[in-house]
Specification:
The protein is an alpha+beta fold. It is 39% helix and 16% strand. It is built from 25 helices and 22 strands. The strands form five sheets. Strands 1, 2, 3, 4, 5 and 6 form a six-stranded mixed β-sheet that branches. α4 (86-97) packs antiparallel against α5, α11 packs parallel to α13 (213-227) and α14 crosses α16 (276-286).
Length: 714
Amino acid sequence: MSAEATSPGAPIRRRGRPRIDLRRIGRAALLGPVSRDRLPDALAHVADAHRAHHPDADLAVLQRAYLLAESSHRGQMRKSGEPYITHPLAVTLILAQLGAETTTLTASLLHDTVEDTEVTLDQVREQFGEEVCYLVDGVTKLEKVDYGAAAEPETFRKMLVATGDDVRVMSIKLADRLHNMRTLGVMRPEKQARIANVTRDVLIPLAERLGVQALKTELEDLVFAILHPEEYARTSAVIAAAADGPDPLTAIAGNVASVLREAGIPSEVLVRPRHFVSVHRVRIKRGELRGSDFGRVLVLVGEDADCYAVLGELHTCFTPVISEFKDFIAAPKFNLYQSLHTAVVGPDGEVAEVLIRTHRMHKVAEAGVIALGNPYAADGTAQTTEPADGEGTDGEGTEGERADPTRPGWLSRLLQWQQSASDPDTFWTSLRADLAQDREITVFRTDGGTLGLPAGASCVDAAYAQHGDAAHTCIGARVNGRLATLSTVLKDGDTVQPLLAEDAASGPSPDWLDHARTPAARIAITGWLEAHPQAADSGQPGVPAGREPQSAPPFGPGTPRARTASAVVEQPDAAVRLAGCCTPVPSDEVTGFTVRGGAAVTVHRLRCPAVARMEAVGRAQVAVSWGDEQACRVTLVAESFGRPRLLADLTEAIAGADAAVISATVEPPSEQRVRHTYTLRLPDAAGLPALMRAMREVPGVYDVSRAQHPAGAL
């Protein structure tokens, strides 16, 4: 993937992570192919790391992949002067250290061959099989010659779609970006900043969501050094100064180990240093740092039950900081992460954060989906972990797709909305906004299912997540059994039931965009509003301003007409809408005015205040008549005294008249008086007087009238 070159003095060195000697491997790579009976010297680091996780791995396929990569990249050099083969070797080593299986390592060795050499996908497929070919194709960039400025967003779209079918694609991409970021020193500062920005906005959030913390934390530090060099230098100086001072964490870790030995709990107790960005965040949060703020105590045990046994011992023998306790074992994070978090006060008053997890949890916490091995193994022995965001898995998968037990809910949602974002700029902007949501919540549906949504999501987001485009007709929701507005922000564990109107002509209001947090909802709402520009003139949120022109019998001999519902105007090819300010119904005396240069006609009652205003500014009237259709939509305002069950009694009266509620609002009580506004659809306008009488007879209601809102600009 056209890896970037760098100076030997990379700005950050990941503590405790071995680094290959690029220059030495470069010399080994230049020696060319070796005999079949031994591994090339340049591949030895990868082989050792791979065998540490997979002792029985067959290295023959890695040797073949290396020989193909080395021969095809021979003669290509990185900008720092090393042979190009050092880049795929370094990417493969990163993945091998995290425990990736052989297929992933094979593809990582070959990941730039199709993009940068004469090797074709057909050759990769023929020599290494369909799986490796799929992974290599997934991380291959689209050509700028073909896509221009859209090449980068469309490459990421292609990569994400491939990741939806095989998460190992993104694993290779993350390792590739990590090595490029490690070796970015020789690039121009502006290009370093551009790559760092994309890494911060897209790659780091993806690493977080896939649970690959080992890659995420180092990427954060590298981006921090490039985009905020002064803050990075200050943080580096603080860490260096702390290294020369007392180390309270080591003492606390020793005390913890002693307590667990006496309790007979087999465990391993380590001090886990914080990375640069973590220290920077703590410093911003707390101001002056304590000695225990530069790391955390990590306790590793064998079984899940041991985690809680350790927690009990710590809270018994030390003073716990209860507000710091979090149980991510019983309720894992959406990225597979599991641990117990707590904090205890040491003998000298130092507060130390403690992480408690099993060895398996630790592996998943570090390597995320990479630690799952091959989720597509035919023998079914691959380790899998249930998604933690409550959305379940894809099961069998649709025809032509591979069932992926590791696909989390956020990825499924991303794959769904990206199909609607055909414009590269819309996709790129929406992707960054989606990945900026750093926390998820789970809400329950009334049918027993669940929805995974970003924190801060509203009922609008839940409606589109559950019903797709059908949510255009949403008029409200029930949250935990109570009526709620669409702008209501949902909390983790809420039960939500979007309420949809029976009228398929209803549509979203532009105001909905203020409450939508998910790209799926925003793209769907924006698409509907662009297809119905007259909705912006509507006086009623959630109700379309009009309908598309329909063909109809001539109004008079040879005279075309346009209509909506039963309103007919002598205006060919014009959209017709009933004004939201007065909601005329059949039998009302009505008139019309053209809007948007004659493209549409708005129908008003003759007594509507807007009519006098339009006449005063010289707007010509358009003749309107009522057709045969008697169904109508009307807005009624009920004035009442506040009392219990008033809303339920009014709703029952409306239902008794066979009217469907399109939308309803209740204003806050003022001097014990309550104002209810209902937009209703009646099967026959003749039933309107009876409906209004039934509503007036509800105890506490002292007036019911047709809406007469001040009309907006037309």
